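Let's practice the habit of predicting before peeking. Look at the sequence and jot down your guess about where helices and strands might fall. Then scroll down.
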Amino acid sequence: MYGAGAKYMDDCPVLPFIPIYLVVSGAISACVSVVCMMQIVFIATGNEHIAGVVLALCYCCEGVIGCFIAIWFLVGECITCLCVLACICSASECEALG
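Done guessing? Here is the structure:
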């Protein structure tokens, strides 16, 4: 997701939030993956207590970030619908004027 958003960052003039959403989602997913990998490393090295703390941190981060991404997605969809409706309304007004 990060690569696609970065590649097309300036190619979406109508809805510039789509590439930004992809970049942020990709970066956050990478951070969560790193935290979860840290937990695996702590388990492998025998630090069970630290691994439990990291696991709790991982679940908390995934929950908060998941809610953030879902809300951002819904807000983005509302903005997209408003932009599309504005384009449709302005096109019909132009056709009515002739």
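How did you do? Residues 48-97 form the longest helix (50 residues).
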